[in-house]
Amino acid sequence: MVRSQRLGFMARLCAVFWLLAAALPNGVLDLNPAKRQACVERASYRAFGALLPGRVAVNEMEWAPYLLAWTEHQALAGPYHRLSPAILAQHRIFASSPAEARAIAAREGVDYLAVCGGAKLTGLDPADADASLWRALVAGAAPDWLEPVEPTGSFKIYRIRR
Question: Quick one: 142 and 63 in the same domain?
Fold first, then answer.
């Protein structure tokens, strides 16, 4: 494909994107709704300051750089890895049954779980999703090995009981 053809293709692609965005309610394509935006605001990380520094598994890797920048905590995994074992472990903590999640968190040295933004867990069939730690947390039924930390603001933080 020659340069002019690539530019023409890109221009058409952009036009289609903007036409689709205009067709959405209120003509707005909201890729970062307020619930998620709160997860990247500095004030949302203040609750971590009251906790002893430790390793944190977050429900979305996007939050890891902010956690590292604004707190004394470590992140189990972040978006700057390339499918590292830590990324897989973090996903498995939330995707596994509560008992399996506890074992993974212990193996990875995780001290806290932090949830923000309410995104859905992806990549699981419905039966596995229903049995996951994530589903239990969303339902407000944290297992007894997780101690809710209060107050937490935008994040729901759980301390792992040893």
Answer: yes
Tens digit of pLDDT at every position of the chain (162 positions): 555 555 455 555 544 455 455 445 554 555 566 777 889 999 999 999 999 999 999 999 999 999 999 999 999 999 986 778 999 999 999 999 999 999 999 999 999 999 998 777 888 888 999 999 999 999 999 999 999 998 778 999 999 998
SS3 state of residue 6: helix
Model confidence pTM above 0.90: no
Core vs surface per residue 85-95: b (16+ CB within 10 A) or e: ebbebbbbbbb
Pairing label, strands 156-160, 112-115: antiparallel
Q: Give DSSP secondary structure letters for 77-122.
A: --TTSSS-HHHHHHHHHHHS-HHHHHHHHHHTT--EEEE-S-PPP-
Do residues 21 and 86 share a domain? Answer: no
Long-range contacts, stretch 80-88, CB < 8 angstroms, 24+ apart: 87/61
Q: How many domains in the chain?
A: 2
| Same domain flag for 39 and 109 | yes
